[in-house]
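Q: I'm writing up a methods section and want to include an example of the input and output format. Could you take the sequence below and give the corresponding predicted structure tokens, formatted cleanly so I can copy it straight into the document?
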Amino acid sequence: MTVCSARDQEVDIMTDKLTVAVLGTGIMGAAMARNLARAGHTVQAWNRTRAKAEPLAADGITVAATPAEAVTGADVVLTMLYDGPATLDVMREAAPALRSGTAWVQSTTAGLDGIEDLAGFARDHGLLFYDAPVLGTRQPAEAGRLTVLAAGPETGRATVTPVFDAVGARTVWTGDDGAAGTATRLKLVANSWVLAATTATGEVLALSRALGVDPDSFFELIAGGPLDMGYLRAKAGLVLDDQLSPAQFAVATAAKDARLIVEAGARNGVRLDVAAASAERLERAAAQGHADEDMVAAYFASYDEKPTD
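A: Here is the clean output for your methods example:
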């Protein structure tokens, strides 16, 4: 595995600007599209719900009516959709306009089975496939400070590097074969920790409420020690200050990722009880009406009814 700074390391690449198709303009995709445009690239964006993509026009981004229209003439196709099956469906819609040899940066958290299917599509259509999920949520995405986890062929890296530079603060290369899913595997491991920490945050707040303990007493107890962590305080603050919208990373998407983690573990002979419990809590919170709120809203899954102060 190699790590390279996206802004500090000199890279021997062509400096010509690219035409980039961004398919999927949700929380992450819209931010990535804007940063690509700010970097001077021509961006053609598509989203299934067009109204969510329309605001991008104010940033000089062309909003396409179909995936095929979006990828027409693109040097790089970047997908940031809900999951693997959704991505495969959209790429099939785009297929008539895809050019052989085009680089495909696949940034959806698709899971191991999903990556295999997407890599197969890339192979069948002569695309250079880059497995490139990202670490980070809304704020780092908007700031162009994501961490890109990437695997793909040396051929074509000069083309995709400017894309990674525009959306991320650093790129971690995990291999030269996107189909092997090494970047996705690392993303699933990282997300398993994020979800465990998020679940624990919600439960410590719920237990504090149930026992009549001021959460600040807990934070003071662990302050400055090995149990203290900025992520805990940030996520707890979203609950305590009722700032769950707009989501940094939504409950529904986190639930999907949790299930992918559980499936990846089972596929490789590992039982992941915490990830499974996190998936159940997230799904319960979504059913309670919190699907579009920040993932720490899984806190509400501790209750049958919304707690009152």
